[in-house]
Amino acid sequence: MQLPIALYCTLVLYRTLVEGSQPEVLLKQGTLKGIWEESIGGRPYATFLGIPYAKPPVGKHRFKEPVPNDPWIGDYYNATREPPRCLQLNHNTLNTPFAILGSEDCLYLNVYTPVITDAKGTDGKLLDVIVFIHGGAFMFLTSSVFGGSILMEREIVLVTINYRLGPLGFMSTGDAILPGNNGLKDQVLALKWVQENIAAFGGDPDRVTIAGFSAGSASVHYHILSPLSKGLFKAAICASGSSLNPWTIAENSREKAFFVARSLGCPTGDSQSLIKCLRNRPAEHIVGMTRHYMPWLYNPFSPYALVVEPPGPNAFLPDTPINLLKQGKGVDVPILFTFTKDEGLYPGAELVGWPENLKEIRERLDELLPSVLDYNYTTPNEEAKLEITKKIIEHYKVDLNTKEGVRNFVELIGDRLFFHGITKAAKLHASLYSSPVYMYRFSYMGENSLSLVEGGSKELGVCHADDVLYVFSREGLSTQETEADRQVSRDMVNLWVSFAVNGTLDGQSVGENLPKIAFTDIRGPSLQVPMLVEEMGEEKFWDSLNLLENIATVTREEL
């Protein structure tokens, strides 16, 4: 009896695994060798780590758009070690001598696949592909922070990518010399690499879904809007972030670039001389200057982010996200927007979970709130900033001396930094585009939570990006310890894979009346409760503050 192709490939993989050889693929760059691993259920799969997709962005390539990598020298490239994270501040030790992590040479990606083809092609159907973009506020983390051992229970190919962070990825002089957004242009080049090479790993280049969490989620939404990303994907999953979140657009980018240059002894008469000099300064010194723009702990957490670029064929972001959305410039593809019940636990878990931080913010709430909520530079003046701060505290009844007041503070952070922009983006897509829009809120509290990483406790709530733990493995935070957790993990994998394969969610449909959004609350094992999309994130309140931000570039009546 002839075996199904998927089962046949699994048996071949297992036989090769126990024989101890390495999986191989042949690319235009040369032969690639990886390693064998097993999924959480014991299924073998091939992993290829640290594949270079661009030339190292060092020396003359620093602050330039990425360039495709050359073929590697030698008989093969050994893709068996995690790539270095892109040079960044250490989230946990910002004010110590050990505050810089990673390497400037970091433009690599990882591929996880349950099937392998050879140079002649594959005997069977190519698999759907998920390209996953890591979060970290455009400042932190790396592609390897979440692994593939959970998702590899299913027949799908996974790609995770590195991209330049902080000033090395997002510095801008506001002109053609350094227009900015190189970190997102790195992602575009990685997506083009996927189009050219993923078939060798058993993946279908015509069936690519891009996904990400937090800043990676905002990145996904930016790709939907960017002219440079068209044709590179068929669907999108935005987990805990959108381009309409306030921290995804940087303020005063030119001033920041010139401040860094002056501080490092570079001329500031013109952009060309400034950048030429900065290319000869240690990259660690450039990254270290970022602490100047984080006046309290690591807040605001995205001092470097995207900018609207001068017009040109290579502009990743030619206009503000809200204008691109309203003008119908976005790619019309199915979108899944997600968020967790207590998004504000990033950064709220560290602020209220650590006694010394809670004490300080109690004493300095009026002073620190603009940094935590990232509106230091988007109020008309200092007097207006004080008035807005007062309105926010009163509206949310923030009292950091009571449990209820602390919960209100976490809710406030979540509304401002996540819910408001996510729900507004979902509603605009549903009303202006024809493709379906899905949303889920993840309300399940399992054995572990990302709030533990931030120094808090899982009792604080369901943290920002907790849902991603049930789809992608993270060392030290298992979601496989109880049967309830394992079932939720299976449910979440089924949900993500169903969307990636079909562009829909099983058992859900989009309604006829606008906004056409299917919204589900995920509360536990096999417990998914349909909900109506009402006002979330206190939209009217935040719109009433008239902050001078990306989301204010269209009249509020139109929104």
Question: How is this structure best described in words?
Answer:
Helix 9 crosses helix 10 and helix 9 runs antiparallel to helix 13. The model is unreliable at 1-19, 118-122 and 551-559 (pLDDT under 50). The protein has an 11-stranded mixed sheet with strand order 3-4-8-10-9-11-12-13-14-15-16, with helices on both faces. Strands 1-2-5 form a 3-stranded mixed sheet, with no helix packed on it. With 559 residues, the protein is α/β, with parallel strands linked by helices. The chain has helices at 5-19, 166-170, 182-197, 215-225, 253-263, 271-278, 283-288, 321-326, 345-353, 355-363, 365-372, 382-396, 403-432, 483-502, 539-544; strands spanning 24-27, 30-33, 35-38, 44-52, 76-78, 88-89, 100-101, 108-113, 127-133, 157-161, 203-213, 235-239, 335-340, 437-442, 517-524, 527-531.
